Amino acid sequence: MTAAAARPAPSADAPVCVLGLGLIGGSLLRVLHDAGRSAFGYNRSAETVSAATSDGYRASTDLVATLRQASADEAIVVLATPVTTIDDLLPSIAEHAANCLLTDVISVKQAVAESVTRLAPGVRYVGGHPMAGTSRSGWAATDPELFRDAMWMVTTEDHTDPDDWLAISTLARTAGAFVVPAAAGAHDRAVAAISHLPHLTAAATAAVGAGESDLALRLAAGSFRDGTRVAGTAPALQRAMLEANGIALLNVLSETIDRLIAARDELREKGSVEIVVDDGHRARSAYEAIAGAGPAPITGVAIGQDGWAQELRRQAHQARVWLG
Asked: Between the CA atoms of 43, 47, 48 and 51, what dihedral angle is there, to the nearest 10 degrees?
């Protein structure tokens, strides 16, 4: 039995330590605290910590002290900082809170898992990614309702410890989200298509629209506003997210470019954009059918039974979610 396996399973209401109190991490701290769960956080910005404590939440700029408290409380530690910063945090977690279960809310999973394996190999880790956010950032943007009815991916590999998986899934459910089980690689490919690619197309649409003239921007309405919303996110945050998922993003970007080139050629040669418009309309209709139907629950799975992880993933690929 490994040291990790010998540790007791985390309780369903274990305290939670959030590292990073921006939009996602700060919103998580707020919703957990407001739900009555013991939660505290760290941020390197004294201004952010001051704002959080002024609002009645426990927060500190002292990373070591925060991690030592997490260790004493046997808390779940949540990485909620940009992916570019976690390599600096993981050695401290390994040193001061190695007994804690670790998760994250970062939009890529394979890169984070590889960093954990390399820099905190003794720490139990189950990845997470809430599909929620806005173009705003910082403590002032936080909202305890941010995760309400959102999809929260929880990494589900064949080797995932069932008790640890349940602990992270319970955390997501406490925040108001639905749990979507998925393997790290499948998650990264999916978000490249439905999250990271839209950041690039929003940036391109915004740049083309703004480059036309101020008249174009004055005339811009719903299509431009909605299609470019995420381009308003801080560029450094966008780059960190997109570049960390570079391989998967390259693949979907190549497909997108191929479709646009085909549309350009069809328009030039036939005066039509029928194919790309029809394909897009069918895809949007499929999305609306799934979103409008509400979350269908995963059924017939007992967490920890033989094949539980595979069955969760199989049903998740049928658009089902874990409700606990």
From this structure: 140
Q: Can you tell me whether residue 264 is helix, strand or coil?
A: helix
pTM for this predicted structure: 0.89
Q: Kindly report the average pLDDT of the chain as a whole number.
A: 93
Mean pLDDT across 186-208: 96
Structure tokens at 142: 């936080």
Q: What CATH number does the domain located at 189-293 have? A: 1.10.3660.10
Which whole number is the average pLDDT over 211-217?
88
Question: What is the DSSP annotation of 245-274?
Answer: THHHHHHHHHHHHHHHHHHHHHHHHHS--H
Domain regions of the chain by residue span: 15-187+295-321, 189-293
* pLDDT tens sequence across 231-251: 998 899 899 999 999 999 999
CATH of 15-187+295-321, one of 3.40.50.720, 3.30.499.10, 1.10.760.10, 3.30.70.580: 3.40.50.720
CB contact at 8 A, 153 and 131: yes
Bin 239: left if φ > 0, else alpha if -120 < ψ < 50, else beta. Answer: alpha
Cα angle: 172, vertex 17, 119; to 5 degrees: 100
Is 67 strand, coil or helix? Answer: helix
Residue 49's contacts (CB-CB under 8 Å, 6 or more residues apart) are 21, 43, 59, 60, 61
Q: Hey, is 245 helix, strand or coil?
A: coil
Give the pLDDT score at 293: 85
64 with 96: CB under 8 angstroms? yes
